[in-house]
């Protein structure tokens, strides 16, 4: 009997940020988010610098992620203690890496955590979604350019390239987070539906008014599922919220506050300006010396 995915509506707001497909962003761009996830979960995190397009194919990027998972197993880590996660393009790899690992005979990881995952190579569904005019960062029609660049000559229904077309029966319990106004919400909802049809426990969290990715991620803000926290670890309690930024000028005006005045430096402290030199001085004829009368 198919499992109905759990859908949770969450309230939140934050600074949106977006990963740049498979062709940009480095480990440093996600360091803060990864550190906060590690703190909230009470677990160490391994960040994978997989090769990106267009230097390699997407299958080689997936192979890099599978090799990192195999390396963890070779180091003595138990598969029941490994959770595979990623955001945007990394969310795509968070599903494809376990699928390829299971095909290679590796044990199943403990879970999958995907933030705004890209899971469907068919962009028409995203263009038809109600969030197309709402997403402030991703113009949905331009996603076709990204698919053609990162998946050249690929069949959009290939189960080993498209997660929503793959056999998902062997995947572990999954957490998917997405923003309520982003285009990739269509992929998150479709992936949760396919996981439920494959009898895979799945929790889908939709965050209102947010584009869930990178620094604005609710997961990076300490919303890791309580079941994944260690009860004996100090990190079991939610981390302290970050310091709030001072209100903007528009917010102060809306609250009735006066416009801040700027203290310009005194004119007495300004250095005197040197007279500008004329590059083309006028040539004047020499004048005769005045006549002088001497006393007798």
Number of domains as seen in the coordinates:
1
Please identify, by name, the CATH architecture. 3-Layer(aba) Sandwich
Q: State the shape.
A: elongated
Helix-strand makeup class = alpha/beta
Main sheet: strands, sense, barrel? 5 strands, parallel
Strand line-up across the major sheet: 1-5-4-3-2
Low-confidence stretches: 12-21, 214-239
The radius of gyration computed from the alpha-carbon positions, rounded to a whole number of angstroms, is 30 Å
What do we call the CATH topology?
A: Rossmann fold
Ends distance: 136 Å
Number of strands: 5
List the secondary-structure elements in sequence, H or E. EHHEHEHHEHEH
**Helix count, DSSP H or I runs of 4 or more residues:** 7
Helix content: 25-40%
Give an account of the 3D structure.
The structure is a single chain. This protein is of the alpha/beta class and 296 residues long. It has a single domain (6-225), classed as Rossmann fold (3-Layer(aba) Sandwich). Helices cover 25% and strands 10% of the residues. It is built from 7 helices and 5 strands; from the N terminus they run E-H-H-E-H-E-H-H-E-H-E-H. The protein has helices at 31-41, 58-74, 89-103, 124-127, 143-150, 185-197, 249-254, and strands spanning 6-11, 83-87, 111-115, 174-179, 202-208. Strand 2 (83-87), helix 3 (89-103) and strand 3 form a beta-alpha-beta unit. Residues 12-21 and 214-239 have low confidence and may be disordered.
């Amino acid at each position: 009997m198919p499992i109905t995915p759990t859908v949770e509506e969450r309230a939140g707001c934050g600074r949106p940020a977006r990963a740049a497909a498979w062709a940009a962003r480095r480990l440093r761009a996600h360091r803060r988010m990864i550190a906060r996830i590690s703190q909230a979960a009470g677990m160490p995190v391994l960040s994978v610098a997989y090769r990106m397009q267009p230097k390699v194919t997407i299958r080689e990027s997936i192979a890099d992620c599978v090799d990192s998972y195999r390396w963890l197993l070779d180091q003595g880590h138990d598969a029941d203690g490994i959770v595979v996660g990623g955001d945007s393009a990394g969310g795509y790899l968070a599903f494809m890496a376990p699928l390829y690992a299971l095909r290679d005979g590796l044990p199943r990881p403990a879970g999958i955590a995907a933030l705004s995952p890209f899971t469907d190579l068919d962009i028409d569904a995203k263009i038809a979604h109600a969030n197309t005019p709402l997403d402030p960062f991703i113009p949905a029609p331009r996603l076709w350019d990204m698919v053609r660049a990162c998946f050249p000559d690929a069949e959009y229904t290939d189960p080993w390239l498209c997660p929503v077309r793959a056999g998902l029966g062997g995947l572990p319990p999954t957490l998917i987070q997405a923003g309520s106004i982003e285009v990739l919400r269509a992929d998150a909802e479709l992936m949760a539906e396919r996981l439920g049809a494959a009898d895979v426990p799945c929790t889908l969290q939709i965050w209102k008014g947010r584009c869930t990715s990178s620094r604005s991620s609710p997961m990076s803000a300490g919303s890791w599922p309580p079941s994944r926290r260690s009860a004996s670890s100090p990190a079991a309690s939610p981390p302290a919220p970050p310091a709030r930024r001072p209100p903007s000028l528009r917010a102060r005006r809306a609250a009735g506050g006066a416009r801040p005045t700027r203290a310009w430096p005194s004119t007495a402290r300004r250095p005197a300006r040197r007279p500008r030199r004329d590059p083309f001085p006028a040539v004047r004829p020499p004048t005769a010396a005045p006549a002088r009368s001497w006393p007798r």
